[in-house]
């Protein structure tokens, strides 16, 4: 099963068993023939897996690495537990200037020991990492094979020399590159982007002005459907719950107001953490909802209610969230922002 996601966030917490580390001869890692320099944490062999500081290797491969913490949906003693994400991304040149960047992105979730690989327009199904991440000396270590393959590179282990050899590839050879080009074409159609950047007069408007006009019109048309889209999402989610023998969710006006606030927030900061640093639950509390048992699903780039629900349904954690029997009420909001990173944004809140 493949996921056509744009960008979705899920949350769950699992505890793993303690890894066993073994002493070994010094391990060398090379990227395209150049040695990776490790300063405060050397590669180690843990349970017969070579583990390396993720930032040192990924950055040597030409990728950017960020660490983020999102509030999860797992309650422990009444407190929602956080989960840690390692987000590795690379801007790719698709040979077309459409006024935005296109990226490849790999998202690793520490608590679920999972990896999600894709690009601006396509994500594969989430998979388990071959080696469980660990933290040593304040550095996050991942299996070197997980890093290399997750970043579309070839990797070879030379046991005789205790060397890991990583060979990177051009973006054109990355997995899902055709899907990225298909997405670029769809984006160009919506944006009415010119094939060439020069300005040409068309009906007294430059090409850039014409494109801006079309984008503004599309944005207005999409946002005019926000209430209709919200109702469709609730109906589609309830059909999924009905299949599982669960009671339907009821629309709650307070949660609808909170969802409206959250969809504005995620258009500028796509995260379960609000721009002010608070948990998303505080949006429901501020709107006047009396319970703190609130769940949230968010998704971006989905171009219809059907696509939004499909993306959630194809994600184990998102589907588990909207299928909880404890939930009775819901609120949904949709927003299209032509000037934002992802365009379309969806929020669904759930509560008891």
Structure description:
- Helices cover 29% and strands 30% of the residues.
- The protein has helices at residues 54-60, 144-150, 177-191, 207-224, 226-243, 253-266, 281-287, 305-313, 316-322; strands spanning 7-9, 21-22, 28-31, 34-35, 44-46, 49-53, 64-76, 79-92, 102-109, 114-119, 122-123, 127-128, 134-136, 139-143, 154-158, 163-167, 250-251, 294-300, 329-336, 344-351.
- The longest helix has 18 residues, at 207-224.
- The radius of gyration is 22 Å and the shape is globular.
Describe what is shown at a glance.
The chain has 352 residues and is of the alpha+beta class.
**pLDDT < 50 runs, ≥5 residues:** 1-24, 193-202
C-alpha termini separation: 31 Å
Report the order of strands and helices: EEEEEEHEEEEEEEEHEEHHHEHHEHHEE
Beta-strand content estimate: 25-35%
Task: Give the % helix.
Answer: 25-40%
Broad structural category: alpha+beta
Instruction: Tell me the radius of gyration.
Output: 22 Å
What oligomeric state do the depicted chains represent? single chain
Number of helices: 9
The biggest sheet amounts to: 6 strands, antiparallel
What general form does the structure show? Answer: globular
Strand elements, count: 20
């Amino acid at each position: 099963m493949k996921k056509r996601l744009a960008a979705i966030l899920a949350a769950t917490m699992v505890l793993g068993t303690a890894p066993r580390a073994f002493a070994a001869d010094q391990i060398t890692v090379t990227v395209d023939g150049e040695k990776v320099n490790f300063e405060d944490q050397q590669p180690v062999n843990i349970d017969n897996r070579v583990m390396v500081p993720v930032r040192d290797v990924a950055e040597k491969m030409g990728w950017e690495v960020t660490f983020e913490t999102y509030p999860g949906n797992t309650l422990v003693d009444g407190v929602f537990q956080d989960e840690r994400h390692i987000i590795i991304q690379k801007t790719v040149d698709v040979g077309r200037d459409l006024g935005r960047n296109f990226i490849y992105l790999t998202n690793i979730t520490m608590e679920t020991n999972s990896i999600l690989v894709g690009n601006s327009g396509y994500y594969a199904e989430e998979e388990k990492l071959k080696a469980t991440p660990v933290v040593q000396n304040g550095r996050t270590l991942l299996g070197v094979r997980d890093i290399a393959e997750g970043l579309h590179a070839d990797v070879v282990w030379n046991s005789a020399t205790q060397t890991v050899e990583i060979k990177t590839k051009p973006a054109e050879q990355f997995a899902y590159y055709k899907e990225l080009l298909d997405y670029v074409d769809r984006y160009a159609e919506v944006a009415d982007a010119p094939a060439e950047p020069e300005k040409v007069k068309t009906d007294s408007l430059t090409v850039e002005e014409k494109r801006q006009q079309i984008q503004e019109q599309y944005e207005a048309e999409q946002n005019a459907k926000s209430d209709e889209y919200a109702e469709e999402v609730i109906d589609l989610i309830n059909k999924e719950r009905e299949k599982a023998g669960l009671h339907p969710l009821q629309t709650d006006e307070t949660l609808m107001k909170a969802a409206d606030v959250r969809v504005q927030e995620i258009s500028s900061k796509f995260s379960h953490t609000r721009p002010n640093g608070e948990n998303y639950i505080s949006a429901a509390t501020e709107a006047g909802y009396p319970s703190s048992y609130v769940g949230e699903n968010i998704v971006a780039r989905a171009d219809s209610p059907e696509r939004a629900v499909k993306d959630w349904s194809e994600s184990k954690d998102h589907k588990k969230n909207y299928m909880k029997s404890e939930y009775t009420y819901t609120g949904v909001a949709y927003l299209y922002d032509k000037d934002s990173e992802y365009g379309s944004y969806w929020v669904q809140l759930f509560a008891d």
